[in-house]
Each structure stands twice: as structure tokens, then as C-alpha cells.
Specification:
Layout: H1 13-21, E1 29-33, E2 39-44, H2 46-52, H3 56-61, H4 74-85, E3 95-97, E4 103-105
Antiparallel strand pairs: 1-2, 3-4
């Protein structure tokens, strides 16, 4: 097996994210954690946009991930995010709110 030059044709950046997003049926997003602890949306999968109605830019403009969390679940989601940022594993479900107001579970 010769791997010399194996990275030459490998997708990077947005193309890599699109490739990974296409491998699963779930929706997801990618956010960068800023020095102040806030999350800056960088990417959303096509399934995220289809389900929730937001592109990455629109989600960022709406305030990031909290914009799609049901208001009754937001405090718990923020606690989960704090645990995640502290390096702890998290697991759970919450309601999401699509741009058109539809509510679902994730």
C-alpha cells in the first residue's frame, strides 16, 4: 500500500464538511467556541437546513444554537453546553423549534 501523496485529492474545508454531512441521516452543525465561551456557527448540514430552515449564516444571525432550542428546554441545554465545554460527556433530548415555528424532538 503506497500512501505517498494520499492527501492530494482529499476534500478539505467546506467540501470535507459536506462529505461528512452526507454520510449520516441526522442533522448537525459545527460551531467554534470563542475565547468568551460563546459559540460561533460555522457550518450546518443540508438536513439541518431542510429540517429547521436555517443556513449557517441565518443561524448565526439569529443568535446561534439557542435560536433553535425550545424556550422551555433552553436552560437545560445551556447546562449541557457548559458540561460539554468542561470536557464532560453529555446525552439527552430536547425540543427544537424550526424557523417556521414547528416543534420537534432531538
Amino acid at each position: 500500500l503506497n500512501l505517498s501523496g494520499a492527501d492530494a485529492g482529499r476534500p478539505t474545508g467546506e467540501a470535507f464538511l459536506e462529505l461528512i454531512a452526507g454520510l449520516g441521516s441526522d442533522w448537525w452543525f459545527l460551531a467554534r467556541v470563542e475565547p468568551d465561551g460563546s459559540a460561533a456557527t460555522e457550518f450546518v448540514s443540508e438536513s439541518f437546513t431542510r429540517l429547521l430552515g436555517y443556513t449557517a449564516g441565518e443561524l448565526a444571525a439569529a443568535g446561534g444554537w439557542p435560536a433553535v432550542v425550545h424556550p422551555d428546554d433552553l436552560a437545560g441545554a445551556e447546562q449541557q453546553m457548559a458540561r460539554l465545554l468542561a470536557g464532560e460527556p453529555i446525552e439527552g433530548e430536547l425540543r427544537h423549534v424550526a424557523r417556521d415555528g414547528r416543534v420537534g424532538w432531538h
